[in-house]
């Protein structure tokens, strides 16, 4: 069963004597470690692209199965964007998010073609970050009249710990379009977008009437949120043309950022597993944006 709830933003108790601070910090990192293992357990099928040529993860198997449904009238029906559309989230945005874990543009293309259908002009950029790879891509879905953008999620414990450390010890990064965001998210987004933007710019001018669909898992969800804000504010894209769906996304910025984002009335939803701690790891001053869909069943990301 799915329903929407609002997170309470209870700050960490970081005041008091040194031993209280140490205890609070220890509990925080213990929570982070538990979060890592639970996130891996709950989202293991999202590692679409830890595949080699002859190896399949569970998500690749699911995407291959989904390809048998790609031509059905049910999956080609017009999506309902007046509210959360589960068919759109699972049939389109989950593969868009999962494909970001692919090792290169060719693997991304294969993943998306098997799951969704015809995909063209795939461009990917990745770079090393905290013993993992931060990565994003842009592509076209001609049959849906959409440009898609996907961002890879957290891959290593070091990446997750760095996000938590930045959330405690580093100052905010100012977001030019309202509010402040986590330094780590801001830095990774601008590094990736600096390489992807030229391709997106060309695509959006080649197809000015197309939608822009953006997705990501975990860290990728935070980057997708920043990309959505950037495109609506900087490119002046029509809000009704932009769709954001993320999976297991942490908080991105402060209250001003979240309120500015929500004021745009975008189609923006965060899918969260009821047992996943990642969406709640940043509390002190951080706020969630967008509508939240929680699934308390075994896995809300099953195809």
List keywords for this structure.
Fungal_lipase-type, alpha/beta, 303 residues, AB_hydrolase_fold, Fungal lipase-type domain-containing protein, 10 strands, eight-stranded mixed sheet, Rossmann fold, 40% helix, single chain
The whole-number mean of residue pLDDT values reads: 75
> What is the β-strand count?
10
Query: How much of the residues is beta strand, in percent?
Result: 15-25%
Judged by helices, strands and strand pairing, the structural class is alpha/beta
- Which fold name is given in CATH as the topology? Rossmann fold
Tell me the number of helical segments per DSSP (H or I, 4 or more residues long): 8
Distance between the termini: 15 Å
- Which descriptor suits the 3D outline? globular
Domain count, please report it: 1
**Cα radius of gyration in angstroms:** 18 Å
SSE string, helices as H and strands as E: EHHHHEEEHEEHEHEHEE
Ranges with pLDDT <50 over ≥5 residues?
1-18, 35-61, 298-303
Strand order of the largest sheet: 1-10-9-8-7-4-3-2
Superfamily (CATH H level) name: Alpha/Beta hydrolase fold, catalytic domain
User: What oligomeric assembly is this protein in?
Assistant: single chain
Profile the largest sheet.
Answer: 8 strands, mixed
Give the proportion of residues in helices: 25-40%
CATH class: Alpha Beta
